[in-house]
Specification:
The protein is of the alpha/beta class. It has 11 helices and 15 strands. One of its GO terms (molecular function) is DNA-binding transcription factor activity.
């Protein structure tokens, strides 16, 4: 009979790249992990991992078994979580991925609130500005800003965000303030490297695309914000990156008479993962923390604005 701890040892070894690393991840002795792997292979009647002094290599049988092992472990975790939820307690691991900038600015305090309410949940959070495939990346859920368009995924909407054209007062004094989309093309743009760099604006006749000259391309929104505040050019950024900077005057919103394409925040997870109790609870907690409308879309209170300006001076 196949034992789940052997499956866990196999999967951890493949993910970690070695039995030693897997033993550290599992908190077990290396000999225990090796024995569990060997017992699993005896039970299955097949060699899953080819061992050598330099590296481990999956055999054909191991490659065939790997996705099934992942599914078995995920279903065991889900079953445990559902049983815990039925008793009023959520527990166990929850692997998350999110963009770097949003994670630093907004996700940490929201996760703190979530974990205070569910102290038995163990969150592993990886911040990554590259595209993370929620269906195959090994995460329970991935937070995304923007359209999903993937039939393999379920997406739970968390919040909305506008995108605003912003620049430093110093830049606008030097280069002039654009009053139309046509004038934008003659300005220096700070562009997001992981997209084509196009700026899209909606109007009565449909979408208009603007392609400014790039003074900087970078794959991180916080760097874009800081580059704009330093006077390098104009950036098109979500309000969750710039609401504080606009409040304290280090960035100024530019109005060209049209609205930039907006976006929404989603918590996404594989369709075959199932709507686990932990993911549902996380989505509801994040919605509550961000608010409706989210706090980055609300005008700053006058008293707080005075405090921010006083600190900036």
């Amino acid at each position: 009979m196949m034992k789940l701890d052997g499956v866990a040892a196999f999967f951890a070894t493949v993910e970690a790249g070695s039995i030693s690393a897997a033993s550290r991840r599992l908190g077990l002795a290396k000999s225990v992990v090796s024995e569990r792997l060997a017992e699993l292979e005896r039970t299955l009647g097949a060699t899953l991992i080819q061992r050598s002094t330099r590296k481990l290599t999956l055999t054909n049988s191991g490659q065939t078994f790997l996705p099934r092992a992942q599914r078995l472990l995920r279903e065991a975790e889900e079953a445990s979580a559902e049983l815990a939820a039925s008793s009023g307690k959520l527990a166990g691991p929850l692997r998350l991925s999110a963009p770097v900038g949003f994670g630093i600015l907004h996700l940490t305090p929201a996760l703190t609130s979530f974990l205070r309410g569910h102290p038995e949940i163990e969150v592993s959070l990886e911040l990554d500005d590259s595209f993370v495939d929620a269906a195959t990346g090994g995460f329970d859920a991935v937070l995304r800003h923007g359209a999903i368009g993937d039939g393999r995924l379920i997406a739970r909407r968390l919040a909305t965000s506008r995108r605003l054209l912003v620049a430093a007062p110093e830049y606008l004094e030097r280069a002039g303030r654009p009053a139309s989309l046509a004038e934008l093309e003659y300005h220096a743009g700070i562009l997001y490297a992981n997209r084509a760099g196009d700026w899209r604006f909606g109007g009565p006749s449909g979408w208009t695309v603007v392609r400014p000259r790039a003074s900087l391309r970078v794959n991180n929104g916080l760097v874009m914000r800081d580059a704009a505040a330093a006077g390098l050019g104009i950036a098109l950024l979500p309000t969750f990156f710039v609401h504080d900077a606009i409040a304290n005057g280090s960035l100024v919103e530019i109005d060209c008479g049209v609205q930039a394409e907006g976006a929404e925040l989603f918590l996404t997870y594989p369709r075959d993962h199932g709507a686990t109790a932990k993911i549902r609870a996380l989505a509801e907690s994040l919605r509550t923390s961000f608010g409706d409308p989210p706090y980055w879309e609300r005008p700053p209170r006058a008293d707080l604005l005075e405090v921010v300006r006083a600190g900036a001076s």
